[in-house]
Amino acid sequence: DAGVIQSPRHEVTEMGQEVTLRCKPISGHNSLFWYRQTMMRGLELLIYFNNNVPIDDSGMPEDRFSAKMPNASFSTLKIQPSEPRDSAVYFCASSLGLAVLEQYFGPGTRLTVT
Amino acid sequence: AQSVTQLDSQVPVFEEAPVELRCNYSSSVSVYLFWYVQYPNQGLQLLLKYLSGSTLVKGINGFEAEFNKSQTSFHLRKPSVHISDTAEYFCAVSDRNPSNNDMRFGAGTRLTVKP
After folding, report:
1. How do residues A96-109 score in pLDDT, each as one tens digit?
2. Mutate which of B103, B104, B109, B110 to disrupt the A interface (most A C-beta within 10 Å)?
3. DSSP of A4-34
4. What span, in angstroms and rounded, lies between the C-alpha atoms of A105 and A4?
5. Per-run averaged pLDDT (10 residues), chain B, 115 residues
6. Which among A57, A100, A102 is the top mutation candidate for probing chain B, defined by the most B β-carbons within 10 Å of its own β-carbon?
7. How far apart are CA A94 and CA B78, in angstroms?
């Protein structure tokens, strides 16, 4: 299995632009998580899906952030408009089953907003 | 809701020395506990997990952790570290509610192994 796939690996954009991060979970996993990692705040859970349905988005920082999971093999995290404080590494993770026993993380997308 | 406190943000240690990375959790319900490792420029990787049964859990790369319910701790140990163990280590907790997929991570401990 290829593991969790994220794209792009690096993204540099100007403030005000729209950014879309993509994730392909491990085949057969039915839970998907988006995290943000910064030096100041550590690893933060933004949102998670179960069977393509958003379960908890309380970690999404603002209305500028949105996430979708149109099918079991694809999810997006969109920031519009982007701001310099959104600069971080964004991780996607997937797991099998309703109860979290282990999450498999992707390599992350390093986002820089100038 | 549960939470995790990693008591040391940085732990420097010499090669072949033992190491302990401390983790305490807070929860009003029974929990699952995890340790993840993050190597530079990579995603997190599971080291070990406690689900039930024996309180001493063995993981990959020679690491082990002990669940102590009375002290609400889950400290990570290795008797002899290698240079390659230099990484960031995260303790995590999730509750046992099967309808809850929420996992909370600690702030991380940066382990630096010196030659």
Report:
1. 875 567 889 999 99
2. B103
3. -EEE-SEEEE-TT--EEEEEEPPTT--EEEE
4. 6
5. 89 97 90 92 91 92 95 97 96 78 86 96
6. A100
7. 28
Q: Which tokens is B33 given?
A: 């506990």
d(CA A30, CA A50): 6
- pLDDT of A100 reads 60
Distance, in Å, from the CA atom of A105 to the CA atom of A92, rounded to the nearest integer, reads: 6
> Nearest-CA neighbor of A23 among A60, A48, A40?
A48
A109 Cβ contact partners less than 8 Å away, ≥ 6 residues apart:
A6, A7, A8, A9, A10, A11, A21, A89, A90, A91
Per-residue pLDDT reduced to its tens digit, A23-71: 999 999 999 999 999 988 888 889 999 999 998 898 898 899 999 999 9
B90 touches chain A (CB under 8 A): yes
A-chain residues near B106 (CB < 8 A):
42
Residue B109's SS3 state is strand
Reference B113, options B90, B85, B78; nearest CA is B85
Percent of chain B clearing pLDDT 90 (strictly above): 74
For residue A107, which residues of chain B lie inside 8 Å, CB to CB? 41-43
Find, among A114, A106, A107, A104, the residue nearest to A19 by Cα: A114
- Among B32, B102, B105, whose Cβ lies nearest the Cβ of A43? B105
pLDDT of residue B40: 87
